[in-house]
Structure formats: structure tokens, C-alpha cells
Amino acid sequence: MVVGADGRARCFWGASAADYMAYHDTEWGRPVRGDDALFERMCLEAFQSGLSWITILRKRPAFRRAFAGFAIEAVAAFTAEDAERLMGDTGIVRNRMKVDAALHNAKVAANLSTGLSDLLWSYAPPPGPRPPTRAHVPALTPESTAMAKDLKKRGFKFVGPTTAYALMQATGMVDDHVTGCCVPPGGP
Asked: Is the pTM of this model over 0.85?
């Protein structure tokens, strides 16, 4: 736990910067549903790989503009020219493998027989108690490993078990706010 300037106890990372505090207190761990909303989170988690989350968080408005609000159908229609445009956009992370994966994943998501939201949420474990300390927060779980394996089998890229677990944490599929965190279970 860390106590912020406002005197409230938060998860160990939740008060290190104002951006983190707002994200921690209002978004992280809250249930997110909807194909486009989860596609955005999936893409952002992939772009975060190897970087600090605050980098992605601060660039999120630019990502949303560059990727048509992460509307799956719109991104699935992006062309090679759009990929080049994205690679020239200084507001986002310009990593060719990550950009190509996002465009590819949009096409895969657009062709799912079930929605992306239903697919991802099918791997959410039953609710359990919050972890008592940071040391009890895993980097991956059997559920995230199974999710990643299924996504890869379906053709998705840049979706390993650790990235899948970060997605599960960020979108409320699991509640990894540690015991004593000021964010109440189930949201604000």
C-alpha cells in the first residue's frame, strides 16, 4: 500500500503520479464490456509490453485518434497506407510489430463468430478475495494462460499470458486491488 497526498491508501502503484492515481481510482479493475472497448484495452496492453503503463496512459488520447476510437470494423479496414500513417504518428508508440499486430487483430476480432467481449470474459475466474499484499498479485494465471492460448489459436498476435492477465486486471475480470485499498470492491 501507498498513502497518497490525499491521505488515502492505494495499491502500491496507485499514487506515484497524478495520472496513475486517477486511473487507479476510477478505471483500473472496473468491469469493461463491449467488443470495441475490450479491443482498445487489448491493443493498449500489447503496446505497453516492454514499456511503462504511464507512457501508454499519457498517449491514450493520441492512440484513440490514430486508431479510429478502436472501433473494430474501422481498424479492420485500415490499409498499408494507414499502417505507414501510424508509423509516422509521434503521438503513439511507433513499433512496427505492435502496429501490425493491432491491425491484424482487428481483422481477427471482426471475424469472430462470438463477440470479443464474450470471448474474453469467458476466461474470467469466479470472484475471489482481494490479494492481501503486492506479493500475492500474480503476473499470470491459468486463466490468462488459457485465454492467451485460445487467442493465439484464433490468430491473434501479441497476446501472451502476462499481457492477457494485465488485460484481465485492467478490465475487472479480476480484482487485484490489494486489501485495504481505498477503492471499494465493485468500483467507486
From this structure: yes
